[in-house]
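Fig. S4 source data, part A: sequence.
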Amino acid sequence: MNQPIIAAEDLAYRYPDGTEALRGLTFTIQPGEAVALVGANGAGKSTLLHHLNGTVFPSRGRLTVGGLPVETANLKTIRRLVGMVFQDPDDQLFMPTVAEDVAFGPQNLGLDEPVVRARVAGALGTVDALSLAGKPPYRLSAGEKRRAAIATVLAMEPDVLVMDEPTSGLDPRGRRHLAQLLAAFGHTRILATHDLDLVLDVCPRTLVIHEGMLMADGPTLEIFKDEALLATCRLEKPLSMQGCPVCGGNTPF
């Protein structure tokens, strides 16, 4: 088996006010996996995401990305390995045009202009957004902003793509397009989301966090069939696995 791209061992984090956000998480993620991180509000999902690019450091335990401990000395490398797409695309889009936003990261790496242009074209092409290159971000729809934000991360050529609530604010068509896009990526993908139907579409594996603890780690469909686990963790089955509210019929799962 390959070396894990991400490995957590007894990972714990306590905020300065004493709140225990993570309580001894242990797991590994292999290169190329698509893994969902699910849990109710306040479960610790966002805190775990912040550890992956070194925004915060463990209070106890160990976390490695690409074999490197997440610590100050390794942050520059780790932040090239891990691309973070925020919940609100407006947090990532701040330049006059989409192309300038996508170019911002590669330019700050000191890459030559032809290389930057190639990365911009490649990233926008990957998310089917070449037509957005010259547009100002504030003129974009929610789905277009989401694609542009993903392109800004892809242009950095990360090994790991981390997304926080990727379908937030999207209409059904935009959500479907994003699901197809994420399913096609070869990156290691980590999705923190309440959209459990998206998880079914994209992530074969799911981690369930509840009150800072890892309650389950396994095949997504098996986890979503475990009604006792979902109830304990204040989660519900994806809509596609729930019976018809009109006829009471069962789903094919």
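Fig. S4 source data, part B ends here. The mean pLDDT is 92.
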